[in-house]
Design a protein that fits this description.
Elements: H1 2-7, E1 30-36, H2 52-66, E2 67-77, H3 82-95, E3 97-104, E4 113-120, H4 175-187
Parallel strand pairs: 1-2
Antiparallel strand pairs: 2-4, 3-4
Helix pairs in contact: 2-3
Protein name: 18S rRNA (Guanine-N(7))-methyltransferase RID2
C-alpha cells in the first residue's frame, strides 16, 4: 500500500511501523484518523512476545495523545467474536476516548459493517456515535441503542426480531368429549371400559 502511494505521489507523509507498539507522533498534531480492517489484527498474537491487551493499550494510548482535542477517529473493524469487540472497545475507553460501535445493515450477512467511532476527549453531545444504517433510506432510532456489555452504543435493531410464535398446547379434554369418543369406539366393536363417575376426572398431583 505504501509503494502504491509513492507511485501515485500522494500528498502528506508516509510512515511504516507497527501500530501495536504505538504511534511515534507528536501530541495533538492529528485532526482525524481513519482505519479500514486493521485494528482487529492487534487481537492476534503473531509472536510469542505479542500480548493483545498491551498492544491495544499502546495503540489507543498513543493515538489519544497525538489527536487534537475534539478530533474524531473512525475504524472499520471485523471482530471475530463479541469478546474481541469488547476487548477493542474496552481498550479505547480506558485510553480516554468517548464513542462506541456503530453497525450498518445489521440484518445483512454480506453488507453488515461495524465501525468503531471515537472522539478524543470526554463524552459530550458532539461525541455521540452516529446512527447505523439498516436499509436504503433508514437508520436506527435513538430507542434502539443499547447500553449493555455486548453492544454498548451499538444500534441493535437486529436484536429486536419478532419472536417465533409459541405453539399453543391443547387444553385437557372435557368429560363430554371423552364420552363421545368412547361411544364411537363401542360402535366400532372395540372393548371400552364402562362409564363411571370417575370417567375423564382429572387426577390430583398426589394421591
Amino acid at each position: 500500500m505504501l509503494n502504491i502511494a509513492l507511485e501515485r505521489e500522494v500528498e502528506g507523509d508516509l510512515l511504516l511501523g507497527d501500530m501495536g507498539q504505538g504511534l511515534g507522533l507528536r501530541p495533538g498534531v492529528v485532526d482525524g484518523a481513519i482505519s479500514i480492517s486493521a485494528v482487529q489484527w492487534l487481537c492476534n498474537a503473531d509472536k510469542a512476545s505479542h500480548e493483545p491487551r498491551l498492544r491495544l493499550k499502546a495503540f489507543f494510548g498513543s493515538l489519544y495523545r497525538c489527536l487534537a482535542r475534539g478530533a474524531r477517529a473512525v475504524f472499520q473493524i471485523y471482530p471475530e467474536s463479541v469478546a474481541q469487540r469488547e476487548l477493542i472497545l474496552g481498550a479505547a475507553m480506558r485510553a480516554g476516548f468517548a464513542g462506541g460501535v456503530v453497525v450498518d445493515y445489521p440484518h445483512s450477512s454480506k453488507s453488515r459493517k461495524e465501525f468503531l467511532v471515537l472522539t478524543c476527549g470526554p463524552p459530550s453531545i458532539s461525541s455521540e456515535a452516529p446512527k447505523g444504517k439498516v436499509g436504503d433510506m433508514e437508520s436506527c432510532s435513538d430507542d434502539e441503542s443499547s447500553g449493555d456489555e455486548e453492544n454498548r452504543t451499538v444500534c441493535i435493531s437486529d436484536r429486536h426480531r419478532p419472536r417465533k410464535k409459541q405453539k399453543i398446547t391443547k387444553k385437557g379434554k372435557g368429560r363430554e368429549w371423552v364420552l363421545k369418543k368412547k361411544e364411537q369406539m363401542r360402535r366400532k366393536g372395540c372393548a371400552v371400559p364402562p362409564d363411571t363417575k370417575y370417567t375423564a376426572r382429572k387426577r390430583k398431583a398426589r394421591f
